[in-house]
Amino acid sequence: MATDINLVSQSGRMSQTFKPFLLPLLGGFALMLLLVHARDDQPEKYRIMENEQTDLAKSVNPKYQMVSELVPINLGRWFTLNLFIHKLTHLIYNPCLPCVSGFISIDCGLAGNSSYTENTTGINYISDETFIDTGERKSVLQEYGYRYQEPYTSLRSFPEGNRNCYEINVTDGYKYLIRSSFVYGNYDGQNKVPEFDLHLGANLWSSVKLESASTITHKELIHVPGRNYIHVCLVNTGSGVPFISALEIRPLLNGSYVTEGESLALDMRFDTGQNANLTSYRFPYDAFDRIWNGYYDNDWTQLITTSTIDNSNNFRPPEIVLSTAATPKNKNGSLEILWLPSDNVTEYYVYMHFSEVEKLPGNQSRQMYINRDGELFRKSLVLEYLSTWTIYSTKAQSSGGQYNFSIFKFENSTLPPILNAIEFYMVKEFLESETNQADVDAIKEIKSTYKIKKNWQGDPCVPHAYLWEGLNCSYRENESPRIISLDLSSSGLTGEIATSISNLEMIHTLDLSNNNLIGPIPDFVSQLPNLNVLNLEKNKLTGSVPIRLIDRNKSGVVAEAKDTIGTSVESTKRQFTYSEIIKITNNFKRILGKGGFGNVYHGYIDDTQLAIKMLSPSSVDLLLRVHHKNLTSLVGYCNDKTGVGLVYEYMSSGNLREHLFSGSSSNILTWKDRLQIAIDAAQGLEYLHYGCKPPIIHRDVKLTNILLNENFQAKLSDFGLSRTFPSNDDTHVSTVVAGTPGYLDPELNEKSDVYSFGVVLLEIISCRPVYSSREHERIHISRWVRSMLAEGDIYGIVDPRLERHFNTNAVWKVVEIAMACVSPNAIKRPTMSQVVVELKESLATEIAGTRQSHETKLTNSIEIRSDSSISMLNPSVR
């Protein structure tokens, strides 16, 4: 099998600073050890007296871990002592100059304006408070804290919000190592290790699953940012409160870790030359602060050198790692590396680092070749003494469920193969496009100007499940999402209208109503090319309205500014005559739907499709002030002696009932799509109940009144039955009960809509009609579901066409929400705000559930962690 392989050798030498005054001390110490242990003939052993997690403390300490107890060794077997002296020598050398230019080292949870220099690395750590404005500062319990370096003793937890994000400035186009670290340390006293997701920007980076309260877990990524900042986000998946201990950003050489555009997530990085798993190395030994964990295999032995190694290729493997090499104990044997990926990895990159540590006489040779899965990977490799060679593939390799490499010697080679270090990286393709940069800059400036306290974290538009509150975005294939709607009504805004709004070039709807804005309406508002709806009412604006805005208002742009300025723009929607309505609908030719209070007709204005509903004047008055992304937008109205009607935007994908009960097997809505549609509809109802003054009851919530646009965004329609209700505690409405049988609540108040929505949820889940017949008895869907729940049969409730392609926990949660909504006792029903929160949590659970991977084990092999946890991080190597 042909494989693209590259080999990188050294190109220069890194300077070193030697401290010669320490040589006598080193020599005397070595001689003392030899004299002390010469008396005993027992085999050589080093033993470390450990508690349950001493390995963790060792693994993050870049300095050599001194053994706490030495048992006597045989003077004739002093090889390991020689290694000890060699490693101590490296402490006297400065292996790489402490140039930490570009290092960003964040101690998450450290007090604001604080910083310190970490003792073992010499790296300066700073507080995270300038990188994030949410979360709570915490510390691991004292019983855990003594085990760790200082960055791992504090943390930031995020009990509020589904997604919380750090924003860190970087240089776009440059390659970085990004490392997130996690130590639970029972900081909350719950002794319950959480699980959550880690995102880079809009994309899933990894799921964080900790082995225990004391385990240190690193998630490491090699990534080239496309922008001058990155977002590192902690996402709540319903399995505990997310947290983070440290964030570290390290610039790399762009010539290293070259891929075909993918990012690389570290799976394992090993110093294979250690003859016992004693220590790990990082900065200052590694110029890029990579963490190298020791690995020891019983079938391997060790070669070492105390000479200086030239490690200056693009990868810069640490000299202290290169100074030891693994070689098979059997001189005719091979080095076998058989290892299971920690996730269901389909593609990976491997990097093998070699350095000849023995000066070979003329009659000796070491020539090697490498196989992968039994096929040739590198046909020939001959090393130069004390030079560094890195072998890697230039294209991603298919894992086939395991990594299997063999390093052989050639028949005419007198010496067996060696390996100094190895790295495996999983391919991470971040396919979700980030929001248009100009829109991001504009909305961030708006957030800063008005000091908005909403949970605006990470990317504004993606993932869609974490769309910023008050925003709506457009999503087109191969294009960055654009912000098309901004609702900051009732947000406590003060000052003038922010000029940064002018940079939202694609915005269609802008709602700044019910705030304390002052000053004139700026002219730039009238220059926004796509603005269709502008709501400025209930502010303290003064001065005159820009002429261009008045002209555009005459053409149909909504400019609600009543009672706010001296020269107000009166109406909010375009008014049509009845004769115009006849022309628009082609004499009411095509009926889109029939409601209890009028028909809905299809029509056109120029090339724009519309939906026109004929109904009562009272409904027109009610709906002229309703604006929300999940309610069908009102384009205009007709109100003359001949007839009264509403002109709506056209929803090209029809209503939800058509998609649930169409019978087509090729267009079945996925569970995730159903959840998102339910959330959209719930948000529309929430706005009617709590965003309108006075509040509005829809009174006819059902599948046919949930319409879908071309992007399958759901919007509530058909307000022919809507009525206002008082906003005090008495929410009863004295009016004629109207609506659709099966969806109606015996009482009429805002909880009536909740009841109807619960019925809709049950239909979405089961794809069953509201009423079914059994033995001449009509069974309501809520009664049927209740009987299935009594049997514990959740799968019997869910639409069988989904073929169980859903997260069971998410389904259970939605069923519970629906049954709470249809409670016979209205007081026990949740509010629509509570329903929205619960549904969003269910969607987060569903998204997390589809990404979970299952670990597997290889028979008779050493277990591997599902992340880069430090303790017991060993591959299966034979």
UniProtKB/TrEMBL annotation:
Pfam families: LRR_1, Malectin_like, PK_Tyr_Ser-Thr. ATP binds at K613. It catalyses: L-seryl-[protein] + ATP = O-phospho-L-seryl-[protein] + ADP + H(+); L-threonyl-[protein] + ATP = O-phospho-L-threonyl-[protein] + ADP + H(+). Residues 586-843 form the Protein kinase domain. One of its GO terms (cellular component) is membrane. Keywords: ATP-binding, Kinase, Leucine-rich repeat, Membrane, Nucleotide-binding, Phosphoprotein, Receptor, Repeat, Serine/threonine-protein kinase, Signal, Transferase, Transmembrane, Transmembrane helix. It is found in: Membrane. GO terms for molecular function: ATP binding; protein serine/threonine kinase activity. It is a single-pass membrane protein. It comes from Prunus armeniaca. Its main location: membrane. PROSITE patterns: PROTEIN_KINASE_ATP (PS00107), PROTEIN_KINASE_DOM (PS50011), PROTEIN_KINASE_ST (PS00108). This is non-specific serine/threonine protein kinase. Its EC number is 2.7.11.1. InterPro entries: Kinase-like_dom_sf, Leu-rich_rpt, LRR_dom_sf, Malectin-like_Carb-bd_dom, Prot_kinase_dom, Protein_kinase_ATP_BS, Ser-Thr/Tyr_kinase_cat_dom, Ser/Thr_kinase_AS.
